[in-house]
Structure formats: structure tokens, C-alpha cells
Write a structure and sequence with these properties.
The protein is of the alpha+beta class and about 800 residues long. Helices cover about 35% and strands about 20% of the residues. The protein binds ligand ANZ.
């Protein structure tokens, strides 16, 4: 027989679905433009539809949902939307492995995840949901691509790209991980391949991307982005390569123009275009063999600091423009074609790599910088490169120039002679967006013999993906193998043409999703300008730190590009950024199926209810740090919610009269908690919010034992407590609010104002001085009358000891802080 349910007991399995349905039916969380209210756009990174919502999803969503709810109670009109980043490789890999269409796989996963998301009890406005693989979404991804193309920010070029031989696709630099350069998705070592590719000109915005002055982003993200962009100041200097009668310009980039007189040889990247012509007949065979092996390696392998330096002399020479000296030109793999100009002047006396190289091949070493106060040394005596600053020596007209003037003087000289200029170089590369895959937004370009690369006209967007696709992991895009899809006509001349068969990197889709949420069904543009006007910029953006260098650079670049096209306004898309940490398994290891330490949120919801899971996720660690899961911890959180229920809903009237001071004390504690919780919600300090509510409950419970429930303050305490709890445990708070007979929905209440007088600390430390010197400290009630303060100070032990045999002349009282006794 089924156990009869206690109608008064806390039963999340019953109340949670009930409230979720009611909120949905009442449209409680709909966010619409309302010019009379201040807006708050709370954006959390949208999930990839991998299949199941894991605890990490809960961790990234629930605490910020609580924050969004808090902002709403504070009076803001809050937009908290959700969607799915639905294109990408895993869907395609699943298709190949299990023979299920990527579309089917993706949309089935989305359905399941949507259901799981609803169980969280969030304030997501589901009318605004977007799915990036929907034609109505990618129509605008394609349209945006074309705007970048039309404004010269998207271009096509032949490029050596990183290629994953297992996923059969190009990878962006960011998707290649580890020193051994593996594919981010499947761990296969990456190889190089030459392909014609589409790029976005992210480098044009490098300097602006380094400016964080208008946004509140974590220092750590800023540092990661700064390193990623890698700005180096220095100079371009033009040497003359001895090719033909007149020679040819050979430009280098250096961060140390002050060492120009110490250049004893030059090194070109093996791929440098002048290599073939500089190479002498005698050296040709050796050079060609070296080039062959070098180009097979990856940049990271070539750059590795501990790698033995190798190289070959080309047999050629070049002339140093500042002193006319003729130096040999080498090639070596430690010089990369993709950085600076792909050529360097080597200054072995002052650069470690050049030093190692010169020692190995017996090339001359000539010091031209002398550290302050040091004795002159010859190149032969050096045991390592001198990399610190100093005075320029042996440097022709600039000999004697101190370090702090060197950069300016040398660049002035270079400019005057017309052989160089100050220059800035970045590590940041243009963003490679082509993917040779099927499951992505097609690049909306048509190739015509006569008209070249032509944009697909707006009225023909979206370029729909065909559903009838053959799966063959062949290294070619399945779109290329489709019998008819790529055949089309040229929008300009009407002649035969062929479609671009590459699709876009999915980071394209996620660069602008925050704009589509504003008006997901709008069909006159990517977003409705009226909605943009009201909601943008995003006020608080939250998500994983792992997106610091890709998504978070791309999305800012995207915004700045669109701003310069006049499509969006403002310099920054997201004002405040906060990152959550990672939840580890109970064994403190990363959660993984093979370790068997995965925490499944659905099981937890079945067992404890969503409110407990939400509260525990806020409570168990500092949100930005994360930490190991603890199954005993969640029991504690569950107990807390049951106790709140017991205290407010179940406990019977006991008719006990309140002891004196009990009600006041409880009210003071409540107000102090409110003050702290308010501040912690503002700053996203979630763990202390739940801790404070738990602590307050202990006080409530004690006060109740002493009769507080019969005092008029009791109802006010319940009122404030439930409002504070509403963002954390929205179902339980709503249910209790209703059962206790409060008006309306707790989620439509204002956040309570702090009663500052009650929230003040009741006791303060009073400093006692005698003749301005600290002699004692007393703990006194904050509202102690002045006269009383004075008496206590005079009577204090510390003061008494120093007052012996003296006469008190004057007592100065600074209420609540200090008493100074003047005595002689
Ligand atoms: C001469 C020199 C003297 C240099 C010296 C350094 C110290 P960052 O700071 O990373 O920008 N370099 C330039 N292009 C290169 C390339 N394509 N591959 C490998 N190395 C390259 O480094 C800039 C310095 O790295 C440049 O300044 C150049 O060496 C080298 F005492 O020029 B330097």
C-alpha cells in the first residue's frame, strides 16, 4: 500500500513541477522592453547540446539564475535567456560513428536538455530561446559573414593550416593544445596542410582588444588575452640581400634595435621567399634538404626553448644598413614565417637563442651593450648572452647612448636614413573560420569563372544545408561530395557557378547569439534595433574561464567590427564578466565516466529536489574557484531546507510568551543577514549567502524556543527570510510564501530594504587614550550615551594605570570610537 503523504511535509517532488508549470502558465519570467524600468541583461554562456546536462551546467546556470532573480527583486527588468550552440564536430562524429544524422542527434539532445533545464526552476524566458543550427538563426550568421566580407574584414588566402587527420578538419590555433600539438577534441597529433581558407581580420583590432578600461573583466582573463594578443614593440629594419646587381630589401623585425651594431649574421625562416634566390649553388642541396624537414614540423616544436638549434648557411650575404657590414644569411627553424617578417638579425651577444646558435656554428659574437659599471668583455669570453639593459658600445655614432634613450635614438636614425621605423608586432593571427565539415553554417559565397568570389544575395539567404548527405570520413567536406548542392548560378552574370563548400567555425555562431536573444523571430535583420537599444550591452556575462582566449576574443572583435559598420552601437558588448570554477569528483579528480566519479544532477534532483541542488551548488565552494563534490555536504543543505519548512510551515503554535529582548535581537540578526546577503548577491559571493541563511535559521530556531513566534516581529522575520531565500530555492520559497498566507508570488516581491539602524553592529570597540597614547580598548554597546562612555574610559584598567598621581584636565569623546583623556 502507498504511504499516505503528509500534506504539510516538505515534498520537493510534488511542489517543484507544480510551481514550474504555474510560472510558465502565468508567464512570470517573460522579459519585455519596459522603458519605465531599468534593464539588466544577465547572460550565461549557452550550452553545446552534447546530450545530457551535467553538474557543470547546473553550476554555471543556477547560481547566476539566483543572481538574476535577485536583480529582478531589486527592481530591474531582467533578461535571462538560454539557447543551444548547436553546430559543431561532435554531432558529425556521432553521425559517422553511429550512423545517425547530425541534425537528428542534435535536436534529440536539445529536447532532452531543454527538459533537464526546466527542472532547475530558472527564470529563463523560453520565448527567447535560440538554436544556432536553425535556418532562421544561421540565415543571420551568414548575413553577418557577408557584412564582414563587404567591409574588407573577411578575406580568402592560401594558408598552411593545422589539420587534424582524425577529425579531418582544419583547426584554429586555439584548438591545438599541448606542447606536442594535439587536436583539442580527439587528442590526435596535428599536421600542417596548405588550403585556401577564409579569415577574419582580428589583427586589425589587436590594439583595441588590449584596452580593457571600459569593462569589468577578471584580471586573469585580461592577462590571458594580453598574452594571446602578444603585443611587441620594436622596429622594422631593412637589410639588403645580395641578390643581383642592386640587391633586394630584406626586412627584419626586432625588439632590440639598440643591438643593431652587434648583428653578426642573419637568420631567415626556411619558408622565407628569398631563401631560394639567396642560396648559392654549392649550398643548394643542403638548404633544400633542411627546408624539407623543417616545414614538416609544427611551430611549437620549432620554437621549443630546450630544442637543439639547427640551421644551414645559404651561401648568401646581406648588408647591415647602419654600418654597411656584410653578414652571412642562414636559415634555421627557430625563426617562424608567421611572426614578424619571418627574418631576423642575429645578435648572439645579447640574445640567448642566437648565442646558442653562434656557439654551435662558430659564428662571431660581438657585445654592443654594456651593463652599468661592468668591465668590457669580448665575445669570446662570454658564457651566455647578456640580456639586460646597458649603455650602447661599439655602435658607431650612437656609442655611449644610455638604455633609456636607445630605442628612440636608433629608430630616429633608421627613419632619417630611410632604412627602418618603429614597429609593433602581434602574436595574434587573423581568425581562420573555414571548416571542411558539413554540420555548420555554409559560407555564403559563390565562385564564378568570370566574377570570382561573389556574395550570395540577401534574399537568397539562408544557404540551406542539404539533408541528404553521405558520410565518408574522407578529408573532404561532405558538401563537396554532394552530387548537386554546390552547383548554382552566378548572382552577377547568371553563368555557371559553384558554391563554397566549407562551413563556418562554430565560434562564428556564438559571437553574436546575445544579439539574437533580443528578437529571435525578427526577420528584418539579425536583431530588432528597438530591443537592442533597450537591452544592450550585456550587464553581467558568466561562463567558464576556458573561453578566455577564443570565444571572448572573437565576440569582442565581432562587436567592434559591427560597430564600425554601423550595425551595433557602443564599444563593448559585455560590461562585467565573471567565471565559475570547475566541480571535481568526490575524489578531487576531474569528473569522467572512466573514473566513475561523475555526479548526475538528475539523480540528485530525484533524491533531494532542485532547490537543494541549487542551494548546495551555491554553498559548497567559492563559485569562481569550484572544488570537489561532497555528498555529505548536500545532505546538510537538504536538512537546512527541511528545517526552514519545519520552522515556518509545520511548527504548531506553542503560545509561549517572548522573553524580553528576544524579538529585538532576532530582528537585528535578520537585518544584519539581509545586509550581508544583499552585498553578496551584488558581488556574486554565492557561498556566503547560503551560509548566512543557515546561520540565521539557527537564531530563528533559538528565538522560537524563547517564544519569538508569539511576537509581532515573527511574521516580519518570515517575510524577509522567504524573500532572501526566493532566488536560492525558488520553489520552496514560493510554496511557503503561499502557505503562510502572504500576498501574491514571492517572486514578484521587492527585495527588502535594509533597516540600517537594526543592522548596525550592536557593539563597538572603544579606544581609550591618555594624552593621545593608546592605553586600553573596551567593548561597548554602540548606542552607549556619551557620559557613560566617558565614565567607563576613566574607570578602565589601562587608563587608571597611567593616571596615577595625575590630574584629569579634559576628556574628549568621539562617540562610538574613542575617548582621549588629557591629564597632567
Ligand atoms: C634582434 C635581437 C637582439 C632580438 C636581442 C632579441 C634580443 P618577441 O618579444 O617575442 O616579440 N624574432 C623576430 N621575428 C622572429 C621570428 N619570425 N621567429 C623567431 N624569432 C623572431 O620577440 C621579438 C624578437 O624575436 C626579435 O628581436 C627577434 O630577435 C626575434 F638582443 O632581434 B630580436
Amino acid at each position: 500500500m502507498e504511504k499516505p503523504r503528509n500534506p504539510r511535509g516538505y515534498d520537493p517532488a510534488e511542489i517543484e513541477p507544480k510551481w514550474q508549470e504555474r510560472w510558465e502558465a502565468e508567464g512570470l519570467y517573460r522579459a519585455d522592453v519596459d522603458r519605465d524600468r531599468p534593464k539588466h541583461y544577465a547572460l550565461t554562456m549557452l550550452p553545446y547540446p552534447s546530450g545530457d546536462l551535467h553538474i557543470g551546467h547546473w553550476y554555471s546556470i543556477c547560481p547566476v539564475d539566483a543572481r538574476a532573480r535577485f536583480m529582478r527583486m531589486r527592481g530591474a527588468n531582467v533578461l535571462f535567456p538560454m539557447g543551444f550552440d548547436a553546430f559543431g564536430l561532435p554531432a558529425e562524429n556521432a553521425a559517422i560513428k553511429r550512423n545517425i544524422h547530425p541534425k537528428e542527434w542534435t535536436y534529440a539532445n536539445i529536447d532532452r536538455m531543454r527538459g533537464q533545464l526546466r527542472r532547475m526552476g530558472t527564470m529563463i524566458d523560453w520565448r527567447r530561446e535560440i538554436v544556432s543550427a536553425d535556418p532562421e538563426y544561421y540565415r543571420w550568421t551568414q548575413w553577418l559573414f557577408l557584412q564582414f566580407f563587404k567591409h574588407g574584414l573577411a578575406y580568402r588566402k592560401y594558408a598552411a593550416v593545422d589539420w587534424c587527420p582524425s577529425c579531418n578538419t582544419t583547426l584554429a590555433r586555439e584548438q591545438v593544445i599541448g606542447d606536442d600539438r594535439r587536436c583539442e577534441r580527439c587528442d590526435t597529433p596535428v599536421i600542417r596542410k596548405e588550403l585556401e581558407q577564409w579569415f577574419f581580420r582580428t589583427t586589425r583590432y589587436a590594439d583595441e582588444l588590449l584596452d580593457f578600461s571600459r569593462i569589468d573583466w577578471p584580471e586573469r582573463v585580461q592577462t590571458l588575452q594580453r598574452n594571446w594578443i602578444g603585443r611587441s614593440e620594436g622596429a622594422h629594419v631593412v637589410f639588403t640581400a645580395e641578390i643581383g646587381e642592386a640587391g633586394e630589401p630584406l626586412e627584419i623585425f626586432t625588439t632590440r634595435p639598440d643591438t643593431l651594431w652587434g648583428a653578426t649574421f642573419m637568420v631567415l625562416a626556411p619558408e622565407h621567399p628569398l631563401v631560394a634566390r639567396l642560396t648559392s649553388d654549392a649550398q643548394r642541396a643542403e638548404v633544400e634538404a633542411y627546408v624539407e624537414t623543417a616545414t614538416r614540423q609544427t611551430d611549437i616544436q620549432r620554437e621549443a626553448a630546450d630544442k637543439e638549434k639547427t640551421g644551414v648557411w645559404t651561401g648568401g650575404w646581406a648588408i647591415n644598413p647602419v654600418n654597411g657590414e656584410k653578414v652571412p644569411v642562414w636559415i634555421a627553424d627557430y625563426v617562424l614565417m608567421g611572426y614578424g617578417t619571418g627574418a631576423i638579425m642575429a645578435v648572439p651577444a645579447h640574445d640567448e637563442r642566437d648565442f646558442a646558435f653562434a656557439r654551435k656554428y662558430g659564428l662571431p659574437i660581438r657585445p654592443v651593450i654594456r651593463p652599468e659599471g661592468a668591465e668590457p668583455v669580448s665575445g669570446d669570453e662570454l658564457t651566455e648572452a647578456l640580456t639586460h639593459d646597458g649603455v650602447m658600445v661599439d655602435s658607431g655614432p650612437l656609442t655611449g647612448t644610455p638604455a633609456d634613450q636607445a630605442y628612440e635614438k636608433v629608430t630616429a636614425l633608421l627613419e632619417e636614413k630611410g632604412v627602418g621605423r618603429g614597429a609593433v608586432t602581434y602574436r595574434l593571427r587573423d581568425w581562420l573560420i573555414s571548416r571542411q565539415r558539413y554540420w555548420g553554417a555554409a559560407i555564403p559565397i559563390v565562385y564564378c569563372q568570370k566574377d570570382g568570389a561573389v556574395p550570395v544575395p540577401d534574399d537568397q539567404l539562408p544557404v540551406l544545408l542539404p539533408d541528404d548527405i553521405e558520410w565518408r570520413p574522407s578529408g573532404e567536406s561532405p558538401l563537396k561530395l554532394h552530387p548537386t548542392w554546390s552547383k548554382t548560378t552566378c548572382p552577377v552574370c547568371g553563368g555557371e557557378a559553384r558554391r563554397e563548400t566549407d562551413t563556418m567555425d562554430t565560434f562564428m555562431c556564438s559571437s553574436w547569439y546575445h544579439l539574437r536573444y533580443l528578437s529571435p523571430r525578427y526577420d528584418q535583420g539579425p536583431f530588432d534595433p528597438a530591443e537592442y537599444d533597450y537591452w544592450m550591452p550585456v550587464d553581467t556575462y558568466t561562463g567558464g574561464i576556458e573561453h578566455a582566449t577564443m570565444h571572448l576574443i572573437y565576440t569582442r572583435f565581432f562587436h567592434k567590427g559591427l560597430r564600425d559598420m554601423g550595425i551595433v552601437q557602443g564599444d563593448e558588448p559585455m560590461l562585467q564578466l565573471r567565471n565559475q570554477g570547475i566541480i571535481l569528483g568526490e575524489d578531487s579528480e576531474k569528473m569522467s565516466k572512466s573514473r566513475g566519479n561523475v555526479v548526475a544532477p538528475d539523480d540528485l534532483v530525484d533524491r533531494y529536489g532542485a532547490d537543494t541542488v541549487r542551494a548546495y551548488l551555491m554553498f559548497f565552494a567559492r563559485w569562481e574557484l569550484g572544488g570537489p563534490w561532497n555528498s555529505r555536504g548536500i545532505e546538510g543543505t537538504s536538512r537546512w531546507l527541511r528545517r526552514v519548512w519545519l520552522m515556518f510551515v509545520e511548527a504548531e503554535e506553542d503560545g509561549k510568551e517572548a522573553a524580553p529582548g528576544i524579538a529585538e535581537g532576532l530582528w537585528r540578526k535578520t537585518q544584519k543577514t539581509l545586509k550581508q546577503v544583499t552585498r553578496d548577491f551584488e558581488t556574486l559571493q554565492f557561498n556566503t549567502i547560503v551560509a548566512a541563511l543557515m546561520e540565521l535559521l539557527n537564531e530563528v530556531s533559538q528565538a522560537r524556543n524563547e517564544g519569538a513566534a508569539s511576537s509581532p516581529v515573527w511574521r516580519n522575520v518570515q517575510d524577509v527570510y522567504l524573500r532572501m531565500m526566493a532566488p536560492v530555492a525558488p520553489h520552496a520559497a514560493a510554496e511557503m510564501w503561499e502557505r503562510l498566507g502572504f500576498e501574491g508570488s514571492v517572486h514578484l516581491q521587492d527585495w527588502p530594504d535594509v533597516d540600517e539602524a537594526a543592522a548596525r553592529d550592536e557593539e563597538v570597540t572603544l579606544v581609550v587614550q591618555v594624552n593621545g597614547k593608546l592605553r586600553d580598548r573596551l567593548t561597548v554597546p554602540v548606542d552607549l550615551p556619551e557620559e557613560e562612555m566617558r565614565q567607563r574610559a576613566l574607570a578602565s584598567e589601562g587608563a587608571q594605570r597611567f593616571l596615577e598621581g595625575m590630574t584629569v584636565r579634559k576628556v574628549v569623546v568621539v562617540p562610538g570610537r574613542l575617548v582621549n583623556i588629557v591629564a597632567t
